[in-house]
């Protein structure tokens, strides 16, 4: 069920934060929490398929909204971005803070991890300073119990003065207590828990400023919390207040005088504005610690020996990097081996569909040129893209999601944080780079998790240096034909996976180099720090993994690739069938490009195939075969052995194969990726730079390799 929004007049609350109520008694509930606390699982189990996902207005941050029914009425659940703090330092934290402050939710449910409650309570205390209707959901009780951690919700509720429930998010029945607590929080009078107690100088400063804000805000914002933020000189909140309440709010002389007096008092007590946030954070930590001492009991040390051994293995200096490489090789081997047979079956089915379409065109009396263009041109290109792209993605994306679900991907980012820091970039870029293996467009979109605009741009511009799923068919075919021996054997698949891993490592190395080069030239800057949580190792949810990987990633990426393959099919068919001077436009273009291509160790046919493969990299090899066979449609070969004979007969050598592999690794991104880059950067200049960078690297490497080969 989709969600619509209010249209509001200028000066009112941002329409992007106000959720439309379909009925007068419908309640809006914000779902908050740290990352990796099971918040999304709770959201999915409560709302089911009644969800809507989009971007927060003006932000490249995803939001999720959904409805569920309970107690005879409809409830709208808004899953705000995972955040560690409401003292915003990133786009995600700004969105979370702004919705809690200005979105007017009827209640806020804060989800915490029972196994690390002390750290999570920081967000709970900050949320209670904003809203008087807060429910604390202590989740992952099953995992906490396994670790010998016991949480007493009654003690927590008495200490905080708010409803506290315990849940196991995977068990839908355990969420009934949460929905009941949310109902109570919205039905009962406003709940006011004890405020966080700050050092006396801060409390004295608040006593000067809070009464003025109480009068000016008229209950729309918590005056005590707002006073803290103004004293802390929170620039992002100041901007939001100006845009939502008007510039006159902060320009009021009474408020400005009160702020000046409060800041002067803090300075006299040795707390200048630059250190105030540290004092606030320390007070929050002390109160969270005191709460946990009363409500949490440990049977044994919270960090299990098993987790320690795994982390020592997967994040250690000596073993961490080899473990990453071996895991990557294993995933590639599974993808290569597992995709072979399904790809052949899918290809046979789709090309059988071509015969059915041809029969329909024949019975309809359609002209040959129309049949050839639509069936042998457009349909065949789309069928090739789907049959080559779908099986590897259907294997790779679930495997990638599995690593995310068990908790390995944050450890991957931890391992690669130091290399990226050396390149003056952000360690989160490792996660975006890993997503690029499936699809560079998805990797570019994933760069939204990086807070710094400079570092986000670095990640976007270099994401295409790792090969995406669309380049794998060409790389695998050439590696298997020229280097791995007889196709189909275990030895061949293992060797292909290892060689493909080496090629990918070259791409990763080039990512580091180009990132460093950009960061010391066009995009100078100091790397920023970020909070990276290493979540506990968890048993993966297979059903959720399949749904997320297939619907959110595989079919989404495949749909975009198929959409751009349609115009590509038109263009390829026209160039292969339109002739000039007795030669097709495809052959003429290849001949014109041949002199330059020879400098790269290629030939004109290979280069024109990469140019025509701009909409989808999967069709590069079929175009090469089509041009060599002088056919008017994409060519099929019975097996890799016959493909090798065809390539050798047209002058291919080991040098040609290596040059083609290098150029396949490093050339312009596909059209879908470039469109995504333009959407994310809103800059034609950076989009062109993203296409030029890998192309320049590919041209230089190919020319260097070809020159060395000719020299020796």
Overview of the structural elements:
This protein is of the alpha/beta class. The protein is built from 29 helices and eleven strands. Strand 5, helix 3 and strand 6 form a beta-alpha-beta unit. The longest helix has about 45 residues, at about 320-365.
Primary descriptors:
single chain, 712 residues, alpha/beta, 7-stranded mixed β-sheet
Main sheet specs: 7 strands, mixed
> Beta-strand percentage?
5-15%
Strand elements, count: 11
Which parts are unreliable, with pLDDT below 50 for 5 consecutive residues or more? 1-16
Helix content percent band: 55-70%
Number of helices: 29
Report the C-alpha radius of gyration, rounded: 29 Å
Sequence of strands across the biggest β-sheet:
2-3-4-1-5-6-8
Overall mean pLDDT score?
81
- Spatial separation of the terminal alpha carbons: 67 Å
Structure class: alpha/beta
Q: Indicate the overall shape.
A: elongated
Overview in brief:
This protein has 712 residues and is of the alpha/beta class. It is 63% helix and 8% strand. It has helices at residues 39-47, 91-102, 117-130, 141-146, 153-160, 176-187, 200-217, 223-231, 235-245, 247-251, 253-268, 273-295, 305-315, 320-363, 368-406, 409-422, 429-436, 440-446, 453-462, 472-484, 490-519, 542-577, 585-599, 604-612, 620-629, 640-649, 654-665, 671-681, 684-711; strands at 27-33, 51-55, 62-70, 73-79, 107-113, 134-139, 149-151, 164-166, 296-298, 579-580, 583-584.
């Amino acid at each position: 069920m989709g969600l619509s929004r209010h249209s509001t007049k200028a000066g009112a609350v941002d329409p992007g934060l106000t959720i439309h109520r379909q009925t007068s008694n419908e309640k809006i509930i914000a779902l908050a929490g740290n990352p990796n606390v099971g918040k999304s699982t709770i959201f999915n189990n409560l709302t089911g398929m009644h969800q809507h996902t989009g971007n927060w207005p003006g932000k490249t941050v995803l939001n999720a909204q959904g409805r569920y029914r309970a107690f005879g009425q409809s409830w709208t659940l808004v899953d705000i971005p995972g955040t560690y703090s409401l003292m915003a330092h990133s786009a995600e934290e700004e969105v979370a803070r702004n919705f809690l402050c200005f979105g007017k939710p009827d209640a806020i449910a804060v989800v915490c991890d029972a196994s690390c409650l002390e750290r999570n309570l920081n967000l709970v205390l900050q949320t209670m300073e904003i809203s008087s209707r807060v429910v604390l959901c202590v989740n992952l009780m099953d995992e906490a119990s396994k670790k010998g951690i016991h949480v007493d919700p009654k003690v927590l509720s008495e200490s905080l003065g708010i409803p506290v429930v315990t849940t196991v998010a995977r068990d839908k029945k355990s969420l009934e207590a949460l929905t009941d607590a949310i109902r109570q929080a919205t039905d009962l009078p406003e709940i006011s828990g004890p405020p966080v107690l700050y050092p006396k100088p801060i409390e004295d400063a608040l006593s000067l400023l809070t009464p003025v804000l109480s009068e000016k805000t008229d209950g729309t914002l918590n005056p005590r919390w707002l006073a803290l933020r103004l004293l802390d000189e929170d620039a992002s909140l100041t901007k939001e207040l100006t845009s939502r309440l008007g510039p006159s709010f902060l320009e009021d002389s009474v408020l400005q005088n009160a702020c000046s007096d409060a800041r002067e008092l803090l300075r006299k007590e040795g707390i200048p504005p630059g250190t105030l946030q540290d004092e606030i954070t320390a007070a929050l930590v002390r109160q969270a610690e005191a709460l946990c001492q009363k409500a949490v009991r440990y049977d044994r040390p919270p960090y299990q020996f098993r987790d320690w051994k795994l982390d020592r293995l997967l994040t250690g200096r000596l073993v961490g990097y080899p473990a990453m490489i071996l895991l990557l090789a294993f995933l590639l081997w599974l993808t290569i081996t597992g995709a072979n047979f399904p790809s052949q079956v899918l290809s046979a089915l789709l090309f059988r569909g071509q015969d059915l379409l041809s029969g329909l065109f024949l019975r309809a009396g359609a002209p040959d040129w129309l049949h050839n263009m639509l069936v042998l041109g457009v349909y065949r290109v789309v069928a090739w893209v789907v049959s080559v792209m779908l099986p590897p993605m259907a294997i790779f994306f679930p495997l990638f999601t599995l690593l995310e679900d068990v908790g390995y991907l944050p450890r991957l980012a931890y391992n690669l944080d130091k290399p990226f820091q050396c390149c003056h970039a952000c360690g989160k870029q490792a996660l975006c780079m890993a997503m690029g293996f499936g699809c560079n467009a998805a990797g570019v979109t994933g760069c939204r998790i990086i807070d710094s605009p400079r570092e986000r741009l670095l990640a976007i511009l270099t994401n295409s240096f790792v090969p995406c799923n669309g380049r794998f068919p060409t790389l695998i075919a050439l590696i298997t034909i020229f280097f791995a021996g007889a196709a189909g054997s275990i030895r061949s698949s293992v060797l292909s996976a290892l060689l493909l891993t080496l090629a990918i490592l070259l791409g990763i190395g080039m990512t580091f180099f180009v990132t460093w080069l950009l960061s010391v030239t066009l995009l100078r800057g100091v790397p920023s720090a970020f909070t990276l949580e290493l979540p506990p190792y968890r048993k993966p949810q297979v059903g959720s993994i399949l749904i997320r990987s297939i619907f959110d990633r595989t079919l989404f990426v495949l749909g975009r690739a198929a959409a751009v393959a349609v115009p590509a099919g038109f263009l390829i068919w026209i160039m292969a069938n339109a002739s000039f001077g007795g030669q097709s436009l495809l052959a003429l273009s290849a001949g014109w490009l041949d002199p330059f291509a020879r400098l790269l160790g290629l030939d004109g046919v290979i280069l024109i195939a990469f140019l025509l493969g701009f909409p989808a990299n999967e069709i590069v090899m079929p175009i090469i075969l089509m041009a060599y066979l002088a056919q008017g449609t994409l060519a099929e070969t019975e097996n890799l052995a016959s493909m090798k004979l065809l390539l050798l007969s047209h002058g291919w050598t080991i040098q040609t194969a290596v040059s083609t592999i290098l150029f396949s690794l490093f050339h312009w991104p596909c059209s879908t990726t470039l469109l995504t880059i333009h959407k994310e950067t809103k800059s034609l200049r950076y989009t062109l730079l993203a296409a030029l960078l890998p192309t320049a690297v590919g041209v230089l490497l190919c020319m260097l390799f070809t020159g060395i080969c000719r020299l020796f």
